[in-house]
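Researcher: I'd like a candidate sequence for this fold, 495 residues long. If you have to choose between options at a position, lean toward the conservative one.
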């Protein structure tokens, strides 16, 4: 855990308005919360649907053939087969972060084939185990049909709910390319909110590169043209942008000059157009952006690395919360006795890809108002700190509640430390590459912190360490940083 400062030197300045107004046309002066629904609950709902779908098949079996053990085995086998076939992975789910969520018909052949294999295997095993338990052709066909129909109905309901959430909570995206293709795609996405995408800006080499084409679809809200890295960083942070859609030109190019810049700013990159159709593996016909083919420009190892990092976070945070439960109770009691009600301090921070979340800490002092909490840089030597507050900050015990942020998925155990929106905007203007820190989940500790960059230390140095960590990330490096952090806790330092 690391000692975290509380907020600015210098006068408070107003934040610029967001680059693209939300639907309704009213600009906001604070970055909108990213409301895109996480994929994990939908994957869990599909697993639950597949488990429940086994039960109707019992109607086709005789009382002798029915047993809890048999249906448990069938349930586990069905989930394992679907998982092996990728029916729970985001890409297979159609969780194209630029929209295009699937229908049941997209995955029905894969589900039907796996369940047919499963029931043939069940019939063979029952016959081999005991002849009196053998399934006749009629019973086998009925059990398979009931299982398939119930799986189709339940999975269809999950996908329907998922598409409704995507439509009501669209993801902010940037469209990259030359006119007229970029303008047309942005207009079409605005016209078709069912894809769950809200374009907030057009990225091009020059503003005059994207005139309004005469034959374009009826335009939506006027979108700003982003021509500099600073514009792109500001758009990513203020709008919570997660995705960049590269529209290929007539020659099939995808404007590669922008890819590195957008990836550094935490955007997932999608290529839309002829190149996507030629290079991508076959995809369901229903998976498209109003007829446009697309594919994710992401190294195959990136997804596996993200899953392993998340697994480490869940296991580590869960175990640490259990082990630290007595310490948490003692800290909470000490804060309550020393400083009165209000044990936890909640503060808005900027997370991965500019998304805002509420960070939890034990309260060590009470700010005079929200402006002080948001804009004062350091309170380490504040006279209002009680002895309990000073001890918690020196020992970093005030950071323990952030283990809950890790379990929730707001943070990771290891990553760049999260900062408040006011300072993210300020540091992004002052330090090249600061916004690029947000292309990975923020963390309780990081490479900068284990090198002593905590509290009132160089932001430029922290930025350099954070980006070096992201560029060279491995799971073992996370373990090493956690071990080094544990070692530094025996030498607490204020900040």
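Model: Candidate sequence:
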């Amino acid at each position: 855990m690391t000692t975290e400062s509380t907020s600015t030197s210098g006068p408070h300045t107003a934040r610029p308005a967001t680059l693209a107004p939300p639907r309704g046309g009213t600009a906001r002066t604070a970055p909108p919360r990213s409301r895109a629904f996480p994929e994990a609950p939908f994957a869990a709902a599909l697993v639950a649907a597949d488990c429940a779908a086994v039960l109707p098949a019992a109607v086709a079996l005789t009382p002798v053939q029915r047993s809890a053990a048999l249906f448990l085995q069938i349930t586990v086998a069905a989930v394992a087969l679907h998982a092996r076939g990728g029916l729970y992975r985001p890409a297979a789910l159609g969780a194209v972060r630029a929209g295009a969520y699937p229908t049941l018909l997209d995955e029905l052949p894969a589900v039907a084939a796996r369940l047919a294999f499963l029931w043939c295997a069940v019939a063979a095993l029952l016959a081999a185990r005991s002849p009196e338990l053998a399934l006749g052709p009629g019973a086998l066909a009925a059990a398979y049909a009931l299982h398939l129909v119930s799986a189709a109905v339940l999975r269809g309901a999950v996908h329907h709910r998922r598409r409704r959430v995507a439509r009501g909570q669209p993801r902010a995206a940037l469209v990259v390319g030359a006119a007229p293709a970029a303008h047309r795609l942005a207009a079409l996405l605005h016209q078709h909110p069912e894809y769950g995408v809200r374009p907030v800006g057009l990225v091009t080499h020059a503003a005059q590169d994207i005139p309004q084409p005469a034959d374009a679809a009826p335009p939506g809200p006027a979108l700003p043209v982003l021509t500099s890295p600073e514009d792109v960083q500001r758009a990513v942070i203020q709008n919570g942008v997660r995705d960049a859609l590269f529209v290929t030109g007539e020659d099939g190019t995808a404007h590669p000059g922008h890819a590195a810049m957008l990836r550094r700013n935490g955007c997932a990159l999608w290529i839309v157009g002829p190149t996507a159709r030629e290079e991508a593996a076959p995809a369901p016909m229903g998976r498209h952006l109003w007829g446009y083919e697309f594919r994710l420009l992401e190294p195959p190892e990136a997804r596996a690395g993200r899953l392993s990092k998340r697994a480490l976070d869940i296991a580590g945070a869960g175990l640490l919360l259990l082990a630290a439960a007595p310490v948490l109770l003692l800290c909470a009691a000490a804060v309550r006795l020393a400083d009165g009600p209000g044990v936890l301090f909640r503060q808005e921070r900027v997370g991965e890809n500019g998304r805002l979340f509420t960070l939890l800490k034990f309260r060590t002092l009470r700010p005079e108002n929200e402006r002080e909490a948001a804009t004062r840089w350091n309170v380490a030597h504040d006279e209002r700190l009680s002895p309990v507050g000073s001890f918690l900050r020196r020992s970093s015990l005030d950071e323990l509640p952030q283990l809950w942020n890790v379990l929730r998925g707001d943070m990771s155990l290891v990553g760049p430390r999260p900062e408040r929106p006011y300072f993210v905007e300020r540091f992004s203007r002052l330090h090249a590459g600061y916004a690029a820190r947000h292309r990975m989940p923020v963390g309780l500790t990081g490479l900068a912190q284990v090198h002593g960059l905590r509290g009132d230390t160089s932001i430029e140095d922290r930025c350099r360490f954070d980006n070096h960590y992201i560029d060279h990330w491995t799971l073992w490096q996370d373990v090493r940083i956690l071990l080094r952090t544990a070692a530094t806790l025996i030498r607490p330092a204020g900040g």
